[in-house]
Amino acid sequence: MDALKTIACLIYPDFMSLDAIGPLQVFASANVERQRQGLPAYYRTLLLAEQAGPIRTSAGIEVIAAQALDEIQASEIDTLLIPGGIGEHQQVCNQRLLDWLRSAEPQIRRLGSVCSGALILAASGLLDGRRATTHWADVETLRRDHPNIEVLADQLHTYDAHDTQGNAHLFTSAGVTAGIDLALALIEADLGRVIALAVARRLVMFLRRPGGQAQFSALLSPEPSRTPRLAALLDWIPTRIGEDLSLEVLAAQACMTPRTLSRVFIQELGVGPGKYVEKVRLEAARNLLQDAQASISTVSRLTGFGHPENLRRTFQKHLSVSPQEYAQRFT
To answer: What is the pLDDT of residues 82-107, one digit of tens each?
Structure first.
């Protein structure tokens, strides 16, 4: 058998512990599942830092970095992940770290980030000309500070094992739990779907959310204080999702002209009324399907999509899965 594949996380002061420990636990669990099947371990997990020793996380606890960067050859690392956390603000200016990443990148089979770790990769220049995502709260920072990057705001990760444009080598993921989705995708590419499924079951997780799936719920955002002119309307929309929510109906409810309402939606939410309503309806459909509360035909009717084909198209556009697949994976 080949030597164990080293999966390393490069940590730094005030990194988010879940961004590193979450993915590493997924790889460790893959070893456990292989051993249950009478197979040898496949991965070696490792925490790296500029200096070996205790590193304080953003949660205030300390973890131990087993090795320093100058104690390991980059070629020994199969996969390197850069976590996010409030400490990334210092690391984007850490030239020693950025230089090491640039020199290590050609020697590492897979190099990726979790959450705001994408800002560190971006600062190194490695994401220039590429597609990237990050935690939704950092999307605008990534887009503003790095105009040469194609920022995908509504995506869980950019890893694609079959991609020929470099996305199997250099990739990013969204916040916190998206790093676990990324780790499952990497394991599936290495060891197959059976092992990935076994790991997901063992960790009581959804097998693998597709990388193109949206990051967060439309019903959780935005806060009313950030949308003062729309707050009452945004509370009203979810109570009427099965009814006519055309622009004219919304405008009448908000006591605005359709043109004014469209302008206010763009100003305060960044999307038009139609797209917002679609996302709210999608979220309601997701909740009904994952709770097995109704058939797909009934869900389509209750959430305002009408025909199941309209629901299917919306699921494919936003979640990269069909309603049937979504229901099977969550119920």
So the answer is: 999 999 999 999 999 999 999 999 99
Q: Which residue's structure tokens are 């359709």? A: 258
H/E stretch holding 9: strand 5-10
83 prior amide bond cis, ω within 30: no
Determine the topology of domain 5-202 in CATH. Answer: Rossmann fold (3.40.50)
Length of the chain: 331
Higher pLDDT, 49 or 221: 49
CATH of 218-330, one of 1.10.3720.10, 1.10.10.60, 2.30.110.10, 3.90.79.10: 1.10.10.60
- The Cα–Cα gap between 250 and 240 comes to 11
Model confidence, pTM? 0.70
Say if CB 52 and CB 84 are below 8 A apart: no
Residue 109: Cβ within 10 Å count: 12
> Residue 220: its pLDDT value, please?
47
Q: What is the DSSP string of 239-283?
A: GGTTS---HHHHHHHHTS-HHHHHHHHHHHHSS-HHHHHHHHHHH
**Interaxial angle between packed helices 308-319 and 273-290, expressed in degrees from 0 to 180 and rounded to the nearest 10:** 100
